[in-house]
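[retry 2/3] Ribosomal protein S18-alanine N-acetyltransferase: previous attempt timed out, resubmitting with same input.
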Amino acid sequence: MKLAPLRRKDIARCVEIEKQLFAGDDPWSARAFHSELDAGGYYLGAYDDEDRLVGYAGLVSVGRPGDFESSVHTIGVDEAYQGQGVGTALLRALLAQADELNAPVFLEVRTDNDRAVGLYERHGFTRIGVRKRYYQPSGADAYTMKRPARTAQEVR
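[retry 2/3] Ribosomal protein S18-alanine N-acetyltransferase: success.
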């Protein structure tokens, strides 16, 4: 598996994975992915040995030097590739990008997604709140999680 900038030609595959993972809610559309890329977010694809997209992730950072803040907008991994380290690799790459900015990182995750919550906690995130009925139309709740900014010395 290799990580590389998400290619626009892979957006249709992202939408397929979204529908697989988030069928009970509101999966992202091709338009949403295009909009995120157009806005300059940091989006990565995870590609298998045949160069097929098996996962994707996106981070958006706002602010100015010394005062950046980052937010994980999405991480998705094809169900056939889950449990193989793809999500971990994508998350670590996003966190490395945030660390370059010395930015804290925020995200939302379904409260019933134990695998994802565990992944985030293993990477320094803590729960800071609950957003009731965050996911629609299912009405599932989300934890808001935060990982503090890391200095260059902490990252090494």
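[retry 2/3] Ribosomal protein S18-alanine N-acetyltransferase: The first strand starts at residue 2 and ends at 5.
[retry 2/3] clearing retry counter.
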